[in-house]
Amino acid sequence: MENPTTVAGATTAATATTAETIIHHTTAFLSKAIADPELRNHLLALLHGGGRTHFAARFAAGSNLLKPHSLALEAVEKAIAATNLSVQSSSLAVAEKLLLCCSTTPFSSFLLSLIYSLVHQPAKAARAVLCLFRINPSVARSKFAPDLFQELFLVHLLPALRWFEEQRTRILSNSEASPTKVLSRMNGGQTKELKELEGIYEQVLDENCRVFAEYFINEVLSDGSAAEVGPPPAVVLGRGEAGEFAIAGFGRYNPIPKEEDAASTSSELCSPFGSSSTSSTPNSSGHHPPPATSSPSSPAKEAGSPAPSISDSDDNTSSSSSTASTSSSVSTPPSSSLSTLSTTNRPSPPPKDFVCPITSNIFTDPVTIETGQTYERKSIQEWLDRGNSSCPITRQKLTSTLLPKTNYVLKRLIAAWLEQNPTSSSPPIETPPRRRKSGEPTTTPSLSPNSVIVAAAAVDGSVSELRHAINNLCMSEILDESEAAVQTIERFWQEEVKKSKNQNRGGIDVQSVLSRPAVVSGFVEILFNSDDPAVLKAAVFLLSELGARDESVVQTLTRVDSDVDCILALFKNGLMEAVVLIYHLLRGSSSPEELMEMDMVESLVAVLERKESEMVEMCMKPRSAAVVLLGRMMASGEGSAVEAAIVEGIVKKEGDDVVAAIVGSLESEWDEERVSAVGMLLKVMKEDGRRRNTVADKAELAPVLESFTGGGDGEKFEIICFLSELVKLNRMTYNEQVLHIIKDEGTFSTMHTFLNYLQTAPVDQSPVLAGLLLQLDLLAEPRKMSMYREEAIDTFISCLKNSELPAAQVAAAKTIMSLPGRFNVSGKSLTRAFLLKCAGVEKSYRILTQNEHQQTRELYGETAEIEERAAEVWDMKMASALVSHEFGAIFEVLAEGMKSRNSELQSACFVSAVWLVHMLGVLPDTGIRGAARVCLLDQFVTIFKSAKDNEDKVLALLALKSFLNDPEGLQDLNNNMKDVKKGLRELRKSCPLAVEVLKDLTEGKDNSAELWNHKELVQVDCCENGEVLTIACFKDKIISGHSDGTMKVWTGKGSILHLIQEIREHTKGVSSLVVLQSGNKLYSGSLDRTTRVWSIVGDTLHCMKVHDMKDPVHNLVVANSIACFIPAGTGIKVHSWSGRSNLLNSGRYVKCLSLVQGKLYCGCHDSSIQEIDLATETVSFIQSGSRKLISKASPVHALEVRDGLIYSAVSPLDGAAVKIWSASNHGQVGSLATTMEVRAMAVSSELIYLGSRVGTIEIWDRKKHIRVETIQACTNSKVISMAVDCNEDILVAGTSDGWIQAWGVS
């Protein structure tokens, strides 16, 4: 041992503390307390004995503070909050007077330190803080200000720390345990020695803390000069005469006797537990703990805080006798603070291995650095963050400042010790929020595995094998032995469970043995270190079984975050059985968001995908645990990100295995599992309606109905929504089967149960329930009266009337709209699409039901006709029930809903009303149609006139048609006949029903003239460019060719044609413009003997290629690979784009051409019409011409081919200027009796436009061959070109004097 004087001098030099240092650290500490109310309240609560309780709340509730303290606290808080300096100053003065008139306590000292800090007296503030370390050092250094203790005190106590480490090493040297399991391998004597050593060490820290606080206050912070400051109290180790270890020191305030007095006090220095007669003999521990004496002022008496107990809870009897002997035999000077330290009736201090040497608190996150020392992570990190790079105790230089992982072995041992010592004076370890349930008894496990085995010795004869396995699990350093132990324990557990089942015995004692923290920690060690799947499954199985039966096992596992993380990692890596253990660890302790943060969704879904036969049989099925955990995650609310992630994880799985597994959970005996399965299946069906068939095919609904009977309102509504979604199948016959199952299953009458719930359910939930109840009621033959039906329909009506709850209104309207029972395979209602189909507009219906009939036949062997008939019967039953209720009361509320500004409500009410009115046409007339007319006719007319959506107009027209057979309805329509007919004309092209209704309104007379209207839009003067020889339309553009070679591109905006491009690349007149349907190309033929190919890009034309045609181009027609045109002479020239040319029909002068599907139709000067097959070059005559020597020839001026008909315009000498021929047999099928000289012709899908030589344009009906309208061009010049746009909404004509004119077609 070093010479005491040498060590003291070194310590003094190394650890001198200046006033500036003390003031700096105390000022920083107090500044934080003043700035942070939460920290300040916490510190006040500690000093007042309230632990971590919020002091402000306790103060407001009225605590047992002395009145001066209460007033002073109130004044200090007021001063801190004040912004006025005078108010702050007066408040602090009052508080100081109140505290100085009272006795000094930790509470009053802290308040004084705050006051002095606020009035900028740092020295006084520092003295007040140091008083806390003098009065109650234990609380001050461990809880109140551990950082101050570390900065000001701990550096002076390194000799004591080294002495403690030497003694501890000597005690542990008798054990052959490895460092990681040293504490679990100690015998009882070693444990007792360590606890005695730790108790003395705590006393030494407290006493020296008092001494140094006194020294700092009276010497360092005194008003004298720095030269007058006395030496610090040195703490070093020396040897007494008998060779015992003792604490020696020098200095005025050193509590240890001087060297010359050591002989007289050697008996006290030997051991604080022996009398003077036994002081020279070592105690039973084999070591001599160092005592510490107090300063003369005996501050320990002021503090009054008890010292920690050093009794051994493992051996209560011997501990008690030892303590009693010690109490009676200890001999210390009267001034020693040890006279106030009792060793009886005190809580046991924690083992030193469990306490951080920096903070003196029990570890919550221990880390062992490279020097072998263990510290609290937060404290050592702060030490390193301040720029230190050495170990605080050994002062060895650290090669790395990165901290290692948590020492989880030590952490679990601490957790076990805390279970054994729940009343310890040291603070508890911070653990996850979930703890033992209220009122649940705690267990007191032993730290030693040997004691675990002894406790279980009475199980039976085979317990020796179990004892050996547990010893290997807890103590063996060989992984193979520990793994074998796990499998042995698993086999033993299985045997005991079988005995329990067969003989009503066994299992209970084994459970208590295996539930001890030491054994649980052994299982966790296996999970961390083993890579054998069988062993891992066995360990997880045992922990799951134990956790299901004993809450203390769950508490042991959840105390250490790394243990839970390990189990989660194993689960995510494919150990599916771990889901059961995870369920037990997390039950009732985590929010949906916290569960989601664990990122388990994919693994939980994988559990559902796995077959049960592939997993270990456990206390709970892994599938059940997965379903419940997923259900709890989804509990965060409708439409949440958590819910979306889970549904997506289920839906993206191919096949129906996952959905089938969830459906299987509907049969569970566990109610929470059934409800969780219902919630998931509901969301899955809404997301992917195609899964609905799987659910309906496999689901057992009786257990679900039982859950409804015993569930809460939220669970009941979710079950109702699930059942409602389940009957949205695309087969009406199957829907009825499911409804029968719902109606007939269950212990109680389903309909009566639903009715009772409907009468008490929240308003926004009642429409869905009412819809389901009404469907169940209609399964039987409709009766005149039914309380279920009446209650359901009354619910719809009351919800639709309740304008204060828009959500209930929308839910009611949508439910009514779905009652016809027509759904596609995805569960979407087909009511609107079906009504459009009834009106002849089938596009929406085809899109929604694509391939449905084929699927119905292939998958279920039922024809579409059978399903359609079943749907029609259901339609009639449902509509009859709704409209018959209180003589059509439903129509009134639907009419009000159609007036709503809520688009959802308005749309749903509109479709529902159309459906019911349409069904009135097939139901027997009982006078209800009149009620519907009164309520709805005006609404339908308004929608028909003003709706922007054509489908809405068609639906309104379908409803109006139902009133045409009613004389009063027809009379009401006559009041709006003009607007109705206008709407019919607009719909005529897209809706066959419009033609039918128009015919009904005109009493069967075909008045086509009333159907069409051509309104002039615009006229443009292009006289400077000569004649408008040709016009073509492409999308929203109009392209014109002029006789001077100019091409112009126009776009229509309202009533004006905007010129967007003018092109002058042809040198002579542009005679023809052709747009191919297959691409964005335009061909222009010109009298300059060229044909140009243009690309249409955006609003402009770009010339791609120029073809030399060798002849002037008249009347160009184009196919993909060739172009045909009329040259200057006879015949027709066929030009290949590769450059070859061929002349056809060379004996005729051709006037006009038309090319359709490889057939070239020619109109000639001699009034003949030929058809030329371009493939074979054969010529067929459609009309023979005549050669006239004297009279003028009668050429074919215009020729158009459309829909298999040929329209030719010739001279009107025979009374018909336009003749119509069949392209198939070349026979004449009709003619138009016009007397005009036709020079141009355009044909649309329904109309024929004839342009005359005097500017008149006649419009004829293609089907009836009657003239419907005549319009006049802006001049009397010849109309030489016409075109209709692709939508047939605009007619464009060009004249010989250069005008372009457009009309809107409606």
TrEMBL record:
Q: Which SMART domains match?
A: Ubox, WD40
Composition bias of kind Polar residues appears in 440-449
Q: Where are the WD repeats?
A: 1063-1096
The protein's name is RING-type E3 ubiquitin transferase
Q: Which reaction does it catalyse?
A: S-ubiquitinyl-[E2 ubiquitin-conjugating enzyme]-L-cysteine + [acceptor protein]-L-lysine = [E2 ubiquitin-conjugating enzyme]-L-cysteine + N(6)-ubiquitinyl-[acceptor protein]-L-lysine
The molecular function GO annotations come to: ubiquitin protein ligase activity
**Pathway, per Swiss-Prot/TrEMBL?**
Protein modification; protein ubiquitination
- Entries under CDD domains matching the protein: RING-Ubox_PUB
Q: Which Pfam families match?
A: ARM_LIN, ARM_LIN_2nd, ARM_LIN_C, U-box, WD40
Q: What class of enzyme is it?
A: transferase
Q: Where is this region: Disordered?
A: 258-357, 421-449
